[in-house]
Design brief:
CATH superfamily: NAD(P)-binding Rossmann-like Domain
Pfam families: adh_short, adh_short_C2
Strand order of the largest sheet: 3-2-1-4-5-6-7
Largest sheet: 7 strands, parallel
Number of domains: 1
Radius of gyration: 17 Å
CATH architecture: 3-Layer(aba) Sandwich
Shape: globular
Number of strands: 7
Protein name: SDR family oxidoreductase
Order of helices and strands: EHEHEHEHEHHHHHEHHEH
Helix content: 40-55%
Family: Belongs to the short-chain dehydrogenases/reductases (SDR) family.
GO molecular function: oxidoreductase activity, acting on the CH-OH group of donors, NAD or NADP as acceptor
CATH class: Alpha Beta
Length: 271
């Protein structure tokens, strides 16, 4: 075994695909909010010969995140954290989306930084939605409040979403901003991780054939494939392979950046 790996949101979708991939040569810790989903995922992994540990964890609760990381560290060297947990537009209201996707990422990142050693890597999952909003719309000054004054960050960012009249579009806006923040924050923190010999980066998936991806068909996600270079949704194992590479020693010079994996959907919109 090459050390331990934590995968948040590891009970399904991309997270479970990552556990299947990383579990080949790492001890895997999968975290999720729901115990039944964790038990089902652990059974599925066990059937594939992959042993894993499970942990219920609310990523908006800093103490819970710290306990999760401590559990993995106690079992052996923690070499990577793959942070896939999050909410999509169909799953919650704008403030909840911002709290989970943005502030949850801050909790994960700051907790990882506190124990990061040489060779450690954090891969945060963003979204192609972050690449589709105009740069002027992103409140970069507000982003800087996420660590120092999270309540003010939440209030100001949610207020920006309320400028949009319909709730359906507000939730989409909150999601796009939350994932744009994930990209910005991963870049912003690269220097601090680098000072410890560690890495941090983000990956932005497009439309994938997962439970969350199918849920977002109501938001028009499948329509984005009409202009995409590859006119199909991605398979979970495809994004898992990319994330596993990013978390591997083969990508040891890759940090402070975002990798867009969307089958050419954003390129199609721009072209």
């Amino acid at each position: 075994m090459r050390g331990s790996v934590i995968i948040t949101g590891g009970a399904g979708g991309m997270g479970l695909a990552c556990a299947q991939r990383m579990g080949r040569d790492h001890r895997v810790f999968i975290a999720d909010m729901q115990a039944p989903r964790l038990q089902q995922a652990a059974a599925e992994l066990a059937a594939q010969g992959i042993a894993c540990d499970t942990a219920q964890c609310d990523i908006t609760d800093r103490a819970a995140v710290e306990a999760l990381v401590a559990q993995a560290v106690a079992a052996g060297p923690l070499v990577a954290v793959i942070h896939t947990a999050g909410l999509s537009p169909q799953m919650a209201d704008p403030e909840a989306i911002l709290r989970v996707n943005a502030l949850g990422t801050v909790n994960i990142t700051e907790t990882c930084l506190a124990q990061a050693q040489s060779g450690f890597v954090l891969v945060n999952i963003a979204s192609m939605a972050a690449h589709m909003i105009p740069g002027w719309l992103a409140p970069l000054k507000t982003y800087r409040l996420a660590s120092s004054d999270p309540l003010r960050f939440l209030k100001k960012t949610a207020a920006r979403c309320r400028l949009i009249p319909k709730d359906f579009y507000r939730r989409g806006m909150a999601y796009s901003l939350s994932k744009h923040f994930v990209i910005w924050y991963s870049r912003h923190m690269a220097g601090e991780f680098g000072a410890r010999g560690a890495r941090i980066l983000s990956v932005s998936p497009g439309t994938f054939d997962t439970e969350m991806g199918r849920l977002e068909e109501k938001s028009g996600s499948m329509q984005l494939l009409e202009d995409a270079a590859l006119k199909r949704p991605g398979r979970p194992e495809e994004i898992a392979a990319l994330i596993a590479f990013c978390a591997s020693d083969e990508a040891s010079y890759l940090t402070g950046t975002d990798i867009l994996c969307d089958g050419g959907a954003v390129a199609g919109r721009e072209g």
